[in-house]
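Troubleshooting log. The previous structure file for this entry was overwritten by mistake, so regenerating from the original sequence record. Sequence copied from the archived sheet and checked twice against the printout by T.R.
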Amino acid sequence: MSEQPFSLRRIAVKVYSPSLLYGLGLGAVTPIIALSALERGANLATAALVVTLVGVGSLVSNVPAAVLTTKVGERLAMVCAAGWAALGMVLGIVPSNLGLFAVGVMMLGMAGAVFNLARQTYLAEAVPLEFRARAMSTLGGVMRIGVFIGPFAATLAMKWLGIAGAYWVGMVAMAIATVVCLGIPDLETRAPVEAGQSRDGGSMLSIAKDQWRILLGIGLGIVCISAVRSTRQVVLPLWGESIGLDAATISLVYGFSGAIDMLIFYPAGKVMDKRGRAWVAVPCMAVMSLALFLLPLTHSMPTMLAVAMVLGFGNGIGSGIVMTLGADYSPVAGRPKFLGLWRLMSDTGAMAGPVLLSVLVAVATLGAGVMAIGGISLLGAGIFGYFIPRTNRRRMGAP
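Regenerated output below.
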């Protein structure tokens, strides 16, 4: 590292602006993927399946993303990912058939796996341990801001260009992100590996065997938090509809929850750096659990709004926690490959959460499903509370 004191501000524009642009592009198209599928002849069930292809693309690409990042480096991997996402957007612009459009949607998930892994690895190497949580939480917060802005930009574009306007916004954002990524400086120094080790760390399987205690311990907490986070995006609209709220009111409630989520990422990162990861990870899961337990008790817009804001607060204080813990636990040798496994567990949870909710709703009730997800959140709080304080921070991939 440079001898002058480290400052996040010095790297902010070049490191965070691609994430802002990437989030904007993804946020622009996410709400209208299902509508685009319907426009191409899909029925409701098929349209819902097309939406899940973003997650599927990310899930199946985590391991290849780790291999690619190891071979070409973080900067070039981000360039490739943003360019690949831009090509995926093109398939939403052109009047393609449903099959080709589905390929484009899956390309977005594949690009996301590479982009997210590469930017996480870059920050893990570039930022000193004492600033790591703030760097990661800011990364998560900036991405949230982009996703929040995206639908508004898409709405403006669709007034003139129709539904394809959202994909034009996405393509332009990804194209600019590609150019900006080219300007990110390569890492001048990296954390030294132990004598006799190669920097690539060996195969993915060997890394998984070496780190199995971490992956099956704290990794289970990562599966829990990812499942809860992905499910909460489904729970709020469904519960709002079940108590008779109209779409505009539900959207307003969701927006307020998201706004609270966005506003507190930096203080959360500072607490993690100053007090420790458990001071944020455990409250994050506990607060979301409380909100989920309370949600089935709400029967009006004001009470649901209050609970939704508590849910947003709980998620917001955990901004960057998955990336921070991944960077903490990653070995210096084979860091991208370990983080690929970490993201594989995170994406598994994100895919499993809504599936579990749908099964519980089918066999019981929506309220029972929401309570069960609250139980998973409470389990995650317990896992984080047990494992995180027992970690030796000097072992945690510290540069």
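The two ends are 9 Å apart (CA to CA). Archived copy saved in two places this time.
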